[in-house]
């Protein structure tokens, strides 16, 4: 794709997903992340920018890594990765987490055993402006970064806080991990410092505005908000809004159904990386439950895929220490549990190809037109049919074949 030499065009073309990698890599401090009610985006101080182009190199918003990140139904059926459902055996962790607390338990154990010095995570420590990513080092800090934050979080920006001589876990969405990988190519020491990459399955990040509307729906303004927990109190978890001494509780079905799931950002519609292709392990919700386990469903289970030996070793250690309980599941179970996410990933493949074609051939100069055409009802309908989603997967393979040939 033809772009100017910094990431200004990424946001202009609505391709920014707000990972924050550009602000981390910029050596001139020219990039500040902002939020105007939608996603986090880079604001560039042109006077400081030397046009080095590094920010563009690490940006996964504008680069679509279809080869390493997409995860179609067919690919999942053929995959040899180990799949499990499970949960932390520590009641407080399981209760405070989004699903079964597998991510939090891994961080706690590796910190305790001093295998890592810290973890790069999304933190929800206070009111809305305090939602952000940080490096956490203590058990208390880890327990303050449990559960899902349905608000834009720029995880890669927190890389500024890491020490090149120490070891870390990185937790992020597929797009955060994709950018992290790009950063590691430019700065290999980052790749060495990150011992384990944990991906979270991700359908989309809700805009900031949606949290504002959610908070206002209980009759308080954002400025009077003390704390918001999107998924607390069991599984799938109620949204708990605190303002001073008052607490308001909204069922997940209402908070996600009516507010947070309402709009899908354009870049998320083009995302086929909902299964965090670069993660050593990827964790999501077990939306479909094993009937044998149905009795304690309210306590939550994480559904996860192990992609590397490093992740499998960590998991085995946690099981041996009896800190987690897990049980293997089939690809079919994962597909049934994540059918929404997988069909979105598959339809995104085709959308990306259309978008790329329009971009490359400059078929439409106006971004809004490209945007509308890529997201027509027709395209959406087309991919509501399973067979046609498979066609998208075939398109992807063909596209990669042509691209590989060109690159050779
Ligand atoms: C925006 C978003 C969309 C999601 N969409 C889906 C989906 O479609 N299907 C599905 O099955 N699961 C989805 N998830 C994942 C799911 O909600 C849980 O995060 C996952 O099951 C892990 O649960 P856990 O109990 O093991 O994690 P926990 O032990 O609760 O740990 C959660 C970890 O995720 C990190 N985190 C929280 N919010 C963010 C964020 N916004 N960006 C980066 N890191 C974050 C936290 O720092 C923490 O380390 C989504 C999560 C998010 C944040
Ligand atoms: S082109 Fe270089 S100097 Fe300019 S914003 Fe990007 S990284 Fe910073
Ligand atoms: S690096 Fe991330 S935050 Fe920066 S422009 Fe790209 S997608 Fe947006
Ligand atoms: S859908 Fe994709 S681009 Fe959007 S937040 Fe999730 S991983 Fe990032």
TrEMBL record:
4Fe-4S ferredoxin-type domain mapped to chain residues: 6-36, 40-69
Cofactor(s) named in the record: FAD
Source organism: Pelosinus baikalensis
Source superkingdom: Bacteria
Cross-referenced Gene3D superfamilies: 3.30.70.20
Any Pfam family the entry gives: FrhB_FdhB_N
Record's protein name: Coenzyme F420 hydrogenase/dehydrogenase, beta subunit C-terminal domain
PROSITE patterns reported in the protein's UniProt record: 4FE4S_FER_2 (PS51379)
Keywords annotated in UniProt: Iron, Iron-sulfur, Metal-binding, Oxidoreductase
């Amino acid at each position: 794709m033809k772009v100017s030499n910094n990431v200004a065009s990424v946001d202009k073309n609505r391709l920014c997903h707000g990972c924050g990698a550009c602000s981390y890599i910029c050596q001139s401090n020219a990039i500040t992340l902002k939020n105007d009610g939608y996603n986090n985006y880079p604001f560039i101080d042109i006077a400081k920018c030397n046009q080095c182009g590094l920010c563009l190199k690490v940006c996964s918003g504008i680069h679509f890594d279809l080869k390493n990140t997409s995860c179609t139904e067919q690919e999942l059926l053929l995959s040899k990765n180990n799949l499990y459902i499970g949960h932390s055996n520590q009641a407080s962790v399981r209760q405070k987490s989004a699903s079964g607390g597998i991510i939090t338990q891994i961080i706690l154990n590796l910190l305790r055993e001093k295998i890592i010095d810290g973890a790069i995570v999304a933190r929800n420590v206070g009111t809305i402006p305090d939602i952000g990513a940080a490096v956490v080092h203590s058990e208390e800090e880890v327990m303050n970064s449990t559960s899902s934050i349905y608000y834009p979080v720029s995880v890669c920006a927190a890389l500024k806080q890491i020490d090149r001589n120490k070891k870390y876990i990185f937790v992020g969405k597929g797009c955060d991990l994709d950018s992290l990988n790009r950063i590691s190519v430019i700065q290999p020491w980052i790749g060495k410092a990150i011992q384990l990459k944990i991906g979270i399955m991700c359908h989309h990040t809700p805009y900031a505005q949606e949290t504002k509307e959610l908070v206002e729906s209980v009759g308080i303004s954002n400025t009077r908000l003390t704390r918001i927990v999107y998924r607390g109190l069991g599984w799938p978890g109620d949204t708990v809004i605190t303002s001073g001494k008052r607490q308001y509780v909204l069922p997940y079905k209402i908070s996600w159904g009516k507010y947070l799931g309402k709009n899908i950002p354009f870049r998320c519609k083009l995302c086929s990386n909902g299964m965090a292709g670069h993660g050593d392990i990827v964790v999501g919700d077990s939306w479909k439950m094993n009937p044998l386990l149905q009795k304690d469903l309210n306590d939550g289970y994480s559904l996860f895929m192990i992609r590397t030996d490093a992740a499998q070793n960590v998991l085995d250690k946690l099981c041996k220490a009896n800190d987690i309980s897990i049980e293997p599941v089939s690809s079919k179970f994962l597909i049934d549990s994540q059918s929404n996410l997988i069909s979105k990933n598959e339809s995104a493949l085709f959308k990306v190809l259309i978008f790329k074609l329009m971009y490359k051939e400059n078929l439409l100069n106006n971004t809004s037109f490209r945007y509308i055409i890529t997201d027509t009802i027709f395209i959406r309908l087309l991919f509501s049919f399973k067979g046609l989603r498979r066609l998208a997967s075939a398109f992807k393979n063909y596209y990669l074949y042509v691209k590989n040939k060109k690159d050779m």
